[in-house]
């Protein structure tokens, strides 16, 4: 494998590889904070959020340092915070999700969008407006990526999911936000074994695809993960607030997750690794219709098999972008089947 001569999206945050030559060590440099354009770098302005959505005040309490915060173990509080954030910062009205569906953390989700904007930039200039067309695979009931991409950069999106309740809920959100409705198409995937087939039409082109794959391999694994997260939150509260939170740890036998999540959102057969393998394999069929395929990768050990498979399917270029939110590190894996010359031509035709 030879090193890519293209300029990385942000040199401190990603590694570029060109395949399918001999592989080389991948040593990305971790970022220390959210993306520079992320509006949430300084935390939450609860005063502004409450002004935008007064009901949020019901959940806001001083933390041990005397600063306003919420109980992040409370699903209603987290949902209320999200609703206020999307209204105040992104002008998205009437955002809501059905009970039990995934409630995503906005700062981390918009980081993905910002790094994708860097990936698609031309000569360092971020592209805004409807010239960019994205496809969100598994949009969920929250529809967070197309909503943020439309409101932050004015891009167009197609959003797909195998769950009709999710699609209908995002449609309802779009109906309440005319600017979003004009830039968003929703498509139900009737064949769950397919990721792109039945969604990308023969004559369609997308600048980028996005995805947050199901993390777990089974419902049992997802439930245990939810239980661990709940207990970790409770332990953190115990350290801050004393003995009162011990009751939550001792009595928590039914796993509930503050961010929720349904089957298709949290788990699939084979978990994240198998989902990524399927996506990479199937992406080759649409090599000339998509400029960049991308996906989040939660588990670092899943990167190596992805690199190996991308080599097998003759991906021309691969980028790994690392994102940090607090102590959590996630990665965006991006790959293209187009040569640098063809990608440059794509950008020229787009403009």
What does this structure look like?
- By secondary structure, the protein is α/β, with parallel strands linked by helices.
- The chain has 12 helices and 10 strands.
- The strands form 2 sheets. An 8-stranded mixed β-sheet has the order 1-9-10-8-7-4-5-6, with helices on both faces. It has a two-stranded antiparallel ribbon with strand order 2-3.
- Helix 4 (144-153) links the parallel strand 4 and strand 5.
- Helix 1 packs across helix 2 (75-88), helix 3 crosses helix 4 (144-153) and helix 10 (271-283) packs parallel to helix 11 (303-312).
- Residues 1-13, 20-31, 216-223 and 225-263 have low confidence and may be disordered.
Short description:
This protein is α/β, with parallel strands linked by helices.
Please supply descriptive tags for the structure shown above:
351 residues, alpha/beta, 8-stranded mixed beta sheet, two-stranded antiparallel sheet, 12 helices, disordered N terminus
Q: What is the alpha-carbon Rg in Å?
A: 20 Å
Low-confidence stretches: 1-13, 20-31, 216-223, 225-263
* Helix proportion: 25-40%
Please, what is the average pLDDT? 82
Order of helices and strands: EHEEHHEHEHHEEHHHHEHEEH
Name the overall outline: globular
Span of the ends, CA to CA: 32 Å
Strand content: 15-25%
Total of helices: 12
Please give the order of strands in the largest beta sheet. Answer: 1-9-10-8-7-4-5-6
Q: Major beta sheet, specifics?
A: 8 strands, mixed
Structural class: alpha/beta
Number of E-state strands: 10
């Amino acid at each position: 494998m030879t090193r890519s001569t293209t300029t990385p999206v942000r040199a401190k945050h990603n590694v570029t590889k060109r395949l399918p030559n001999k592989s080389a060590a991948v040593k990305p440099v971790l970022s220390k904070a959210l993306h520079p354009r992320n509006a949430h770098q300084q935390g939450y302005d609860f005063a502004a959020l409450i002004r935008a959505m007064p009901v949020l005040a019901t959940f806001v309490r001083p933390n041990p340092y005397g600063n306003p915060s919420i109980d992040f173990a409370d699903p209603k509080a987290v949902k209320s915070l999200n609703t206020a954030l999307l209204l105040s910062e992104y002008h998205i009205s009437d955002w809501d999700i059905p009970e039990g569906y995934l409630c995503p953390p906005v700062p981390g989700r918009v980081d993905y969008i910002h790094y994708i904007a860097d990936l698609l930039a031309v000569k360092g200039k971020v592209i805004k407006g409807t010239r960019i067309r994205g496809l969100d695979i598994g949009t969920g009931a929250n529809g967070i990526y197309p909503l943020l991409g439309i409101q932050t950069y004015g891009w167009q999106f197609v959003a797909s999911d195998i769950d009709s309740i999710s699609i209908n809920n995002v449609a309802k959100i779009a109906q309440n936000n005319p600017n979003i409705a004009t830039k968003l198409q929703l498509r139900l995937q009737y064949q769950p074994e397919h990721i792109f087939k039945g969604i990308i039409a023969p004559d369609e082109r997308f600048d980028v695809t996005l995805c947050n794959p199901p993390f777990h391999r089974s419902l049992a694994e997802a439930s245990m993960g939810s239980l661990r997260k709940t207990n970790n939150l409770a332990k953190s509260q115990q350290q801050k607030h004393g003995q009162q939170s011990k009751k939550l740890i001792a009595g928590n036998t039914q796993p509930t997750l503050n961010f929720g999540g349904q089957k298709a959102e949290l788990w699939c057969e084979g978990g994240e690794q198998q989902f990524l393998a399927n996506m990479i394999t199937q992406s080759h069929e649409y090599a000339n219709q998509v400029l960049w395929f991308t996906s989040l990768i939660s588990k670092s050990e899943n990167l190596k098999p992805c690199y190996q498979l991308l080599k097998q399917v003759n991906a021309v270029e691969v980028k790994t972008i690392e994102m940090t939110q607090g102590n959590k590190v996630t990665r965006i894996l991006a790959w293209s089947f187009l040569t640098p010359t063809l990608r440059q031509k794509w950008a020229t035709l787009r403009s």
